[in-house]
Specification:
Layout: E1 2-6, E2 12-16, E3 26-34, H1 38-44, E4 61-69, E5 80-84, E6 93-97, E7 101-103, H2 110-114, H3 117-130, E8 138-142, H4 147-158, E9 162-167, H5 170-179, E10 183-186, H6 192-199, E11 207-209, H7 216-222, E12 246-250, E13 256-260, E14 281-285, H8 290-302, E15 307-310, H9 321-326, E16 335-338, E17 341-343, H10 346-354, H11 364-395, H12 402-426, H13 439-448, H14 462-472
Parallel strand pairs: 8-9, 8-11, 9-10, 14-15
Antiparallel strand pairs: 1-2, 3-4, 3-6, 4-5, 5-7, 12-13, 14-16, 16-17
Length: 482
């Protein structure tokens, strides 16, 4: 295939390279169009080397047709997609991870779609998954006519956000307003801090998106533009906390970061039980979630008690300031709390609870095989079956948005492919690993046994049905409703 690389002197060179092969969870895209981003320009100048393991072929986003796929991604074969990649986009063919592929939206050409993934993923993650922006929030975006800025304006309009942008000229400000910004501030001629206070009636904003190494971000916090959700600060207030007011709160990785001791409604630290020999365990959950259920089921099977704290994700109870400060800054459940430490991933929590029990094989190969199935469950099983279950049971088919409706057929195809793989594996076996129940079975059971909620026909998979009954027949088994 033909591909484009930089020669180190600022020139682009057309070369011939072998067509890459997709691995597990990857697709091969016949490239119709590739996006151009600033990292490409910097790489061409020799100022931005590709990360270790990434292709030296330029190009971070592509659009085209999937012509080959690895295990776990074959449901995308022959579909038109756009994708974010770590490199390799300036070529006739490019490998992309399944998780960064999107169907090309109706009405967009391949050229238009190829310019979408880099900015869309960046803005979506920062604005909604990290910033928890919600309808009616004020958002400040520096660089309002950049790719990030224009995408933030567009998403803001779709989701009811009031977006203020800063730009370096009056012409750029005018263009940002034409695109739908609530206000545009020329930072070269105005004090943007004072202007933001004026526009928001001195209430400040809920989320700030700033450029990396932008000195302006210090003013965002110093002048109280970024206000914590659930409250506001008086005009002129400064975030100036003394060391005596600082302790720790939960991060997404289970570690800690500073937080105020004197805030209202803080969660108590979980101590040890009588005698100091047994750690007290708290499960932060929504009980009907399969990911939460697998943690409860593991604890029941090994005879460990869990205190339970229920949340309603549809009411936003995991996106409150209290939750993200104290439990999981990613705003998701389940989270297993072990004294003052947190495990925010379901399969990791199961592994912690099952340590030293028969649910974890002692044979090194069986142990690795168990982990293989646990990883596969999170990568190829849960994203399809669990997602469809949530959409069908809690959101409802009539209330799905266009993107969700577009994703339903490939997710159903991938879900059935996962069930077929399980069916074939269980042909002649009672359990997924070795001769007995293991965490591989527990983690796969949680969403498989309720796949009917997502309108999967389990009657097509008799070996899976027999395996489900074997799991239910285990001593100490508890149903999802328990």
């Amino acid at each position: 295939m033909l591909a484009v690389v930089a020669d180190g002197s600022g020139e682009l060179v057309l070369i011939d390279r072998p067509v890459p092969h997709p691995g597990i969870g990857e697709v091969l895209i016949k490239v119709a169009a590739a996006g151009v981003n600033r990292p490409d320009v910097l790489q061409r100048r020799g100022m931005y080397p590709p990360p270790p393991g990434a292709s030296d072929i330029l190009g971070l986003e592509v659009a085209g047709e999937v012509v080959a796929a690895g295990d776990g991604a074959r449901h995308l074969l022959h579909q038109k997609v756009c994708a974010l990649v770590s490199g390799g986009g300036y070529a006739e063919f490019c490998v992309a991870p399944l998780g960064t592929c999107l169907p090309i939206p109706k009405g967009l050409s391949a050229i238009e779609a190829a310019a979408m993934p880099e900015t869309l993923f960046t803005v979506w993650v920062n604005l909604f998954e990290r910033g928890f922006a919600a309808d009616g929030d004020w958002v400040l975006v520096h660089g309002g006519t950049s790719g990030i800025g224009t995408m933030a304006i567009a998403l803001g309009q779709l989701f009811g956000l009031k977006v203020i942008v800063t730009c370096g000229s009056d012409q750029k400000c005018l263009r940002a307003l034409e695109l739908g910004a609530e206000a545009a501030i020329n930072y070269a001629t105005s004090d943007y801090v004072e202007e933001v206070h004026r526009v928001t009636d001195r209430k400040g904003v809920n989320v700030v998106i700033h450029r990396v190494q932008d000195d302006g971000r210090r003013r965002d916090f110093k002048d109280c533009l970024a206000l914590c959700r659930g409250g506001s600060a008086p005009a002129g207030h400064r975030f100036d906390l003394s060391a005596s007011q600082i302790e720790c709160c939960a991060r997404v990785d289970g570690s800690w970061r500073p937080r105020r001791k004197d805030r209202v409604g803080s969660l108590p630290l979980i101590g040890r039980s009588v005698g100091g020999m047994t750690e007290k365990l708290v499960l932060h959950e929504q009980s009907q979630s399969g990911n939460c259920y697998k943690v409860r089921l593991t604890a029941a099977l090994v005879g460990k008690h869990l205190d339970r704290h229920e949340y309603d994700i549809l009411k936003g109870e995991t996106r409150t300031l209290e939750f993200v400060r104290n439990v999981n800054s990613n705003g998701k459940i389940p989270v297993l709390q072990v004294e003052d430490r947190f495990i925010p991933e379901s399969n990791a929590a199961c592994y912690f609870l099952a340590e030293g029990s028969s649910l974890i094989p002692t044979d090194p190969f069986d142990h690795a095989d168990m982990l293989r199935w646990m990883f596969w469950e999170q990568y190829s099983h849960e994203p399809n079956i669990a997602t469809l279950r949530f959409w069908m049971r809690w959101i409802g088919p009539d209330d799905l948005n266009d993107l969700q409706r577009l994703q339903m057929p490939p997710k159903r195809q991938a879900g059935n492919a996962a069930l077929k793989l399980m069916e074939d594996h269980l042909n002649g076996r009672e359990w997924f690993v070795g001769d007995g129940l293991s965490l591989a079975d527990i983690c796969l059971f949680a969403y498989t046994h309720v796949a009917g909620d997502a309108e999967f026909d389990l009657q097509r998979y008799p070996h899976v049905l027999e395996w489900i009954e074997r799991v239910k027949g285990q001593p100490r088994f508890i149903p999802i409703e328990a």
